[in-house]
Queue: 4 jobs
Job 1
Amino acid sequence: MVLLSFSWVLKGRGFSCFKYSIKYRSCQHRSYAQMSRMLIDEPKYQWLKELGLKSDNPGVFWGTWSGQGELTTSVCPANNQPIAKVFQGNADDYEKCIEASKEAWNVWVDIPAPQRGEIVRQIGHALREKRQLLGQLVSMEMGKIIAEGVGEIQEYIDICDYAVGLSRMFSGSIFPSERKGHTVLENWNPLGVVGIITAFNFPAAVFGWNNAISLICGNTNLWKGAPSTPLTSIAITRILQQVLESNHLPGAICSLICGGTEIGEKISRDVRIPLVSFTGSCLAGKKVALAVTERFGKHLLELGGNNAIIVNEDADLEMVVRAVLFACVGTAGQRCTTTRRLILHEAVYSEVLERLKKSYSQVLKRIGDPLDDDTLYGPMHSERGVEQFKAALLEAEAQGGKIEFGGKEIDRPGNYVEPTIVTGLTHDSAIVHHETFAPIVYVFKTKSLDEAITWNNAVNQGLASSLFTKDISNVFKWIGPRGSDCGLVNVNIPTSGAEIGGAFGGEKHTGGGRESGSDSWKLYMRRSTCTINYGKELPLAQGIKFE
């Protein structure tokens, strides 16, 4: 049960399919009854109160703040100290949220799309005013460095800007009819209430992708953030509340319920929610997909990513090392787009590996509190993640792997581990095909680009991939039908760091969903083909006579 609860909210982990079980130390949901002082009460962290946070926080919003469920504690992964407490939602809170969201939809749907876009513009502006504080909160609660925390809020702001323009641009089509006096239109309408379930590693941005686009499409949103990052969910929802209420709109247009697996299951099985957007592990995503499909609902899945970078023999190695370092070490290996596999052409294998090890050694000099500007590498999000890191390395060594760099838990407060490089495994080793959400990269030597592409495509997931080459023919092979089978196919950039203008998502066990840019908006609407007879006759299609 512990494993199932965890898999609802985390990307690409789930050791339940491993040969052995792991006895986890208690983590974010442990009791802090014996610790009366929260970090929010310390002078150093008084800025948290500028976001509307308190020592005890209601974790449910449906136009009114409440929370009748379990009292949990948000923990800072940099020191494992309690930040503040949150009252989660229960079944009664959930019903209030869904009914209030449905009622709010009756108001929101009648507002023209460009006017909905104006509300989203104001949301983006309100986020700008709190960008630094929100970024600090993300860093403090999730563990990513401050530059990434602020960058995550900027990503939410950017998608708001994008959605404002989109509110005047999304459109249907007009098709010629084969019948005289007829026309055929394609029309798009909102779905209703959209359920959004997000993960701990991007506690703000992924919700932003869904929220901004869904709002301009005319939907109301019910958000369940990760149980271990509830303060970020609450702070953002308070900003949304202020914008909506200042425009005399129901706050329940953007509802929130903090909770665990039981709330996620309710959202997945609720026929009143026509679309569920889920970010999490492949195992949990499959459960969500089955539950939603069983009731003939729609789902948008963004699941695990066992991502690879291929370095061809003609690559710019200086660019390679810089890109690989960020792709493997950024966010302490906890991005869904983190590079897990590095496939090096045999001609450059030794040089890249040695240069990468030197770069990793420089990172060790800049490990620290993610809120410090000089920190380049912060903690893992939870003690559970540290245990998974250690278990994966034990398994890698058992399968023949060699730890070239790192491999240890760091002896300091918080959930710190060394970024790790592993060689000596075959590309089809069991541990390689199991995504471990930690800063571990497996390095392989390949003889050719064709072999490397085959290895890239051999895993179940299909999120992000990247090829480093200077040969234009290799580029088009890579992005073509015999190239990468991933949703994100990059050239000469890392696997991580996608822009909001393109559709984000992956193939195969990654789920097939698309969020953010391009035509992702279509997933938040229903399409109608409308045939209109404006004449005085009634001809049938295909020339059929029924007289």
Job 2
Amino acid sequence: MYVINVPGSNNTTKKGSKWHNKIYWNLGLFSAIFGLLTIYFIVVINREELPVHHSHNEDILIVVKEERPDDIPANSENNIRLLPKDTIINPDKNGDRRDIASIDGDVEILNEPVIDDKALEEAIAEVEHKETYSDGENGAEDKKEDKKEHNMESVKGNLAELSKPWPPVVVPDDPHLYKLPGEDTNVSTSRAELDMRMNSIRDSMRLSWKRYKQCAWGDDKLHPDSCHGSTWFGLGLTIIDSLDTMFLMGMKEELLEAYNFVQDIDYKKGAKNVNIFEITIRVLGAFLTMFNFTKDQIYLNKAVELGDMLIDSGAFKTSSGVPLSDIDLSTGVSHRPTCPGCSKMSSLSEVTTIQLEFNELTRLTKDPKYKESSDRAMSTILQHIPEDHLPRIYVNVNSGVTSGTLTLGARGDSYYEYLLKQWIQTGEQRYQEEYLAAVQSIKDKLVFSSRRGLTYIAEILESKKISHKMDHLVCFLPGSLALGTLHGAPSWHLELAEQVIRTCVEMYRTKSGLAPEIIKFDSASKLFISRNDEFSLLRPETVESLFILWRLTKKPMYREWAWDIYSSIERSAKSDNGYSSMERINTDRPRRKGDLESFFLAETLKYLYLINGPDDVLPLKRYVFNTEAHPFPIRSADFGRTNENG
């Protein structure tokens, strides 16, 4: 960057004759013009000669951030421009010049802070309309509209290739074009080493609990760095969600503290806008599990009280039986979402991911009303299932018809998980048939492979265009595919699971060792991370799948990859204040977001603990985990059926 001082514009010239002043003025003017011409020549005429960070993919198109005045918002449409390949991106205000940072030659990250994701998608796929997810707890999606028509003439040649349809690839010719670290390991870890790992993970749980107790006792969510809590349910969610993890880890003192809190829970003192799906999987699920573990009536009483409140709220009294999304705990009345910009339709994953919990409540109480209510919602969805057996993410509560994007990520993921798990739990044939049909369509329509053999699950937008992005949430799928084979699904499900899990593990090959929220693939099937997605909530999906794959295959690499993930959490997400969600995870200095989701304690640490433990603890033929990692016993005979493969 040139800094030009023009003589005569300040006190840099001495007072003297007009002749001297004129010389200085002319020299200054000449210098200024020369400098501007030089900058113009470098930037506009010959900008490829600038020192750049080259993309490994020669065809990649980059959306960059212009330098802007402070009064222009960061996401302003005027702040976006399109440049040809290998053009340098301006450093941010902190001087960070990691314009395109490579992760072991296969993952790229674009430096596009707070840029509208739709602009990036238009540049990469021309017609692709990005739906951005802001899913702190429930994967809620905020769809942003960008009405500005971008000038695409300067990149027309690049976009010609990007707009061509890509054929899906199920199994690459060589699924091991390169190997992940530890993939060849056949060394069994000693029991002493595994015990050390379990103790370390238990210490992580204790540190998290200690900080929560110190800073946020009784609140739903911990903010460890500022040492305070925040409210979502108004019920002490972190306490409830952590119960069975502490039970499995033998944390008796902490469990007693939690038990004393649970006895005094008053649902009517809860929040006004509580998502029915979230409170079902986290609170109802936790209480049902703890009753099965302990037979303590307190837990079942709390489960029944909550179940009755949800049934009596009127949530299920819609014309279709598809429940409304939210409940006001203080009044016990259900309603549609009230948040600004929220869709007034229900989400597919929410209305179809309450069945395991309601089924279990019916099994324990012998009261059919819980199962009947949740069954009606599921039956309505199945009655309106598309021909491809892949419902879209938005559900009309009056008709049960789905619309919008087809994704196994946010708002769609656990529908497929619960198809399988309802089959396992109840032995009902309809769930088996629908699950198998859905997986076949996933294989036919959504499975793609990168040029280096990374198998990923794409999305189909409402416009029918394919979006080559994959949420970390999709990493539940390898575990579900593998689990299905234990209960009678075809063997190729396991083969596909072992392909997709490699992509999920690859997501962790960032500088921090933490996975981003979303990955994308460009036209050359190159994996990259957008700056907007460069954060980690310490999600559990990958370690959940690794746990199941380890149990089923006994391949040491799955347990070692899980330990690598835990080690990265220890290295990058831990401080004296405990653990925190992280951002800027592919930099040398990742930043703490300063909050901790309850699922880190309920799921992530639990699965990491179990994968290093003995297999006779919660065997997968006898227990099915709900989507919040709360395990229920498999008692299909109690539902009047027998799962012959269970």
Job 3
Amino acid sequence: MQWLAMKSTTFRVLWRFPWFAEVLLIVAMTRTPGTFADNQPKGGDNNGCTAVKLAWGSRGFETSYISSSTTKGEHLQVCSRSSTCCTAETETKMLLLSRQDFNRTVMGKIADIRENFVVQASKYDGFCTELIDKASRDLHEMFVKTYGVLYEQNSKIFAELFQNLRLYYKGRALNLEDVLDSFFSALMQQMFRLLNANYVFDGRYLQCITDQMDNLQPFGDVPGKLSSQVRRAFIGARTFHQGLAIGREVMTAVSKLDVSKSCIKAMAKLLWCPYCRGLTHSRPCSGFCLNVMRGCLADHYELQEAWSTYVEWLTKLAERLEGPFNIESVIDPIDVKISDAIMNFQEKNEEVSKKVFSGCGQPSLSARDKRQTDDDDMNFDWKPSGRQGQGRTPPVTAAGTSIDRLMREFREKLAPLKDFWRDLPQSVCRNLTAPENSQCWDGSNKSRYTQPLVADGIASQGSNPEVVVDIRKSNSVVEQQTLQLKMITEKLKKAYSGHDVDYYDIKESGGASRSSGSGDDLGHSGSGFGDAVHGDIGFSFSIGPTVSVKTLRPYISSRPYDLEKSRTNGRINAPASAARSCERFWSTVLYFVAIIVSRNICQ
């Protein structure tokens, strides 16, 4: 009865806590002579083929890939050929998983930056668009109250102004000076007709009025100042938005770069080959990881110089948009500025009319005004109690923020990205490697990494001991994106100085793949990016190979530096349902084995 009670209790414990069986087996193996641990370096981290089989199976993989006992590794192409727990099938599976590891860790970081550009570009575009729309509504509401029918009859002039401003911001090839000149010319003609309604003016006479506008200056200095302010603010605003779009496009294109077969093999050696040696808990050495990542990311590093300069000037333009080129401070009070121009015209109407009649000739009276010269009902008279718009606070538009806060937020997010490509290898290795001055996985055993570190970039990879890189070949996608970064940087510089900038359409193609990396001998063709992830501005890109595996994580759940962690709370994600079912199954199978082991330990 006591045996049955202990048996029942043990079964319940193992079913609820399946990892307990693994602990018992590991303890038993350390007490049993002739295990894999006897043939490997000491240190408490080598758990033998049985432990490897358990760790492999707990991840949801077929345990038949792992040998039950150590064998010579002549059949291996990537991992060490000394005593091993791995078969040729194990190594093939490791190569597939290594491709996923690269996509998740490296491409995942690139995807995060791309998503950041997508979000910021969308937020900024929404803010500027709503700012223009709000200014149009504000002017309409104020002018309806002030001028009534007279404004409504001539509202097309004002509607065309805001429509042209929208079109320019969205990329239409318009000259802002011409837009403002056309607006004030049309406004002058209509106001002159209304203020001199007792005369008849034909098209030729109205053109004569327009030709004299520079000498007459009926609106005072408002057109000149407003034209200069609008031009600088809109050039800066439009170029900044295009700059954000270029950052998004570069990340989209780079996320589709192929992974070379040499890189995948190096990743397998870095992350998975420790299993073959029974070192299921060993972290890679820092130098080993850096050499692998610098070889895998050699093409990416070639973007660094152009990218750094691009981020620098995008940040500088953001500072200008927060200061003297602030589109919000220009477009928000534009209704008041136009009203000031109208009042200037009213105050100078008699003087302006005399000069026009002198230069263009005396017009004839209209038939109506030969009988009635009282035109008070057609006067633009507006005498407000004070200048409108004084003391205005910056508006909070549909985007939910002002331009000042928006630009500060952009600059804070841009600052860490300046050296993104230079820091990427260190960023990836930071969470993978063992602490400094400690034993670690050096590619063949648990020791210290003695190979020299290579520098970043293609030119330095000829001496890389871990990744074979053809330093004679350049990557066409990287070259294309480098050129695009240089072109937008020149536009950012011009916009920063207030110079006009031509707009060019960004083709949302995402770039092409490097031919040298496609169709490798690892069982994949093309880029190997199968799962599409869609952004919110018409882009799509891929970040993972399509392989039949049940998990992407190579390390057992007890490992504190697991590659993939929950973004919400930083904890290691729970295993997939298939892995949990497999774990339950193994617990049941190991039930009797664990009981026997526990009895032997107790004896």
Job 4
Amino acid sequence: MDYYRGDFLTSKKVLICSALGISGVALIYLHNNRIFSKMPRTKQELQVQVPNIELSGKKLRLAAWLNSGIFGRIVRPIARRTYNVSALLDKVIDDIPSFFPIEPFIGNIANVDNEPTANDISRVVDCLDKPRDLGFPLTTIQDYSNAYQTGKYTPLQIANLVLDYLYNDSLSNEPVNPLSQYNKIYILEQAKESTLRFQYGRPLSVFDGIPVAVKEEFEVMGYLHRQGTSFLGGSTVCEQDNLVVGRLRKAGAIILGTSCMHELGIGTSGCNPKQLARNPYRSGTGSRHYTGGSSSGSAAAVAWGLCPVAVGSDGGGSIRIPASMCGVVGLKPSFGRVSLGPRNLAFTVGSAGFLAATVRDAALSFWLCAGPDPAYHPGRVQPAVTPSLQVISVPNHLENFTIAIDKQYITRGVDPEITKAILDVAKYLEVNFKAKIVEITIPDLEESRIAQIFCIGCEMASSFSTFSSRQVRLLNPETQMSISFVDGTSTQEYMQACRQRTLTMGWLRRLFKEDGVHCILMPGTACTATAIQRRHSTCGFSSRHSQPNNEVRLFSQSNWLSRNNRACSLWGGIWSTHSRTADGTLVGGE
């Protein structure tokens, strides 16, 4: 017995030593490949330099393995140092922590009795000027509604056209593939019912017959709730809709199915080998690019012309980034305004929102879907929504409108062509619309970025705490690395992040209420869309250039906007607008 026990212990020591040896070799390999040595070390370096270091294939799998289990205790501190977390943790903040970006407001409280109905929204749209003939097919909600009312098209014809698009796309070598799940029978049934309502002159609303795609993060009746994975949802389809989907369906919208997304919503590139949506736009070389994420399929569906509006969600740029990269409008409403449901992944920063062909369509969708949800605690008390023709009409001037811009903020770590576009937009609004442009300095950029990573990372990781080890292994390596980054986060670190949230909310409150600023103009993304590479097809990729370290830096402030910012409460305080001018020039900003 003694001999057996000693032999066992010796074997155990050999295994441990072997594992540590492998870990050491792996670290040396990564170091020799300059994975760690190229990382910026100081706050100043992080603000000026965001090196484009890409991991894919075997390197990515190795990095994910090193971040897990016992080796993670060695690797994670190194990774945290490269993310400069000490900038936040070493800061002295006297404010109390804020766990939700919610503050009291003065005004009418929204409830079931005063929520706008689909008919209220339709009456506003009826007062709009008829859309100009721009020489291209139906693109906006108003285009579809007018075509149905005049008999030019029927919802059934549009549904068959959508299905033809999807079928022909599936035959392509590089399909756009915006939808992860759709059912031809379900789509045609909804279209037939809508067509009959128009034939009898009883459409439900301006949304009747409008095709809408829904991010797979939301429950959609008749479809699996997989959230971008290969195993969630099993084989059981949802028996009811999420509240937002239900309101759209009740208004007559044709729910096309679920759209592709970055796995579990953890990532901003849109690269998910399990369900990959491609950017409809091609570069001059004809190569395909990623859409941005995590609402990748929703952005692709709108940009491709499949539908004028799609549902997405956003906790750290997941609507705004793909909207920017696909050239559509992205709206993340103020926190709590549009319900994500009780089982959302990032419960203090996440928000349901919309990707749309125009700002007007985003506003119409917001009006329909905003309002209290008994099952969603953060949104139970909120201002009443009042559809207004003035809000969605194009202004002749912006003389009393103050736009703030931080010129240093939009140049550090931002691609030059994006910086130039933002400065051109500011000049255009100042010269042609008489807007007042003021320069500001946004404080605590680095601290806010780190606090955002802690908050959203811990919340999403807690949502996955029930995953078995087998399920974790089924996740993409990039997803595993993102989850493991916040493993071991202490209470002190999370509380410090929430104290930084209090500071940021206070600064935004003063900026919008006391300083008279109506809007902050900033990039919708820090970098242009990444080209799709064959080496990404097996397990995806992780890149500092297109990952949250760079991109979330632009959104950490706006992610904590509370809904009492009256000047911009409808748009969430800071909004992304991406549309084409009369000459076809793509402009955008946030």
